[in-house]
Write a structure and sequence with these properties.
There is one protein chain. This protein is mainly α. It has one domain (about 25-175). It contains 7 helices and no strands. It has helices at about 1-20, 60-70, 75-90, 95-110, 115-130, 150-160, 165-175. The longest helix is centred in the N-terminal third of the chain and has 19 residues, at about 1-20. The termini are far apart.
Amino acid sequence: MTRHVHSLLVAVVTLAAVLLSRPALAGPPLLCFPFDIGGARSLPMGHGNWHDTDPRYDVSHLVPDTLALLVPATPVIVRMETIRRATLYAATNPRLAATLLDELRARTAAAHPGNGALATFDFGYLVESYKEAKFLFKEPIAALDGIDGYRLVLEAHGLQHDAAMQQAAKLIADGYPRSTR
């Protein structure tokens, strides 16, 4: 009887450990893992590592190019990859990084009712991408400290129930230590 109880206890503990464990991430989840967007248009990237940008891309066009790609018809997963790429380019240029942040914040404030969820999502996702990319930025962006991008992504999901928005919120939460979220 005791042997049976011991075996059952070991099985229960093992099952609980498997079910409650979190996957080990090899880096910031919003940055290090490119999203498969198939043939969808996005910012150009290099062909090596997750952070390899295209050296031929004129980064002075980053803000207008990013805004042009984040139109209402763009699927959320493509938005996530575009923002990931924009973050990698912006990390080398503090002025462009701040400008892109300001532009997406302004779009959120001026969004039309049908586009409000997407504008809120884009701004929140950029904020969290920038926060994860702190180690890449040449200069810190002080404006990020007062913005909860995670809350904005959740708010956007509440307005537009999209599975990719839910995935984005989970990725953001997975990138934080348990005590933070």
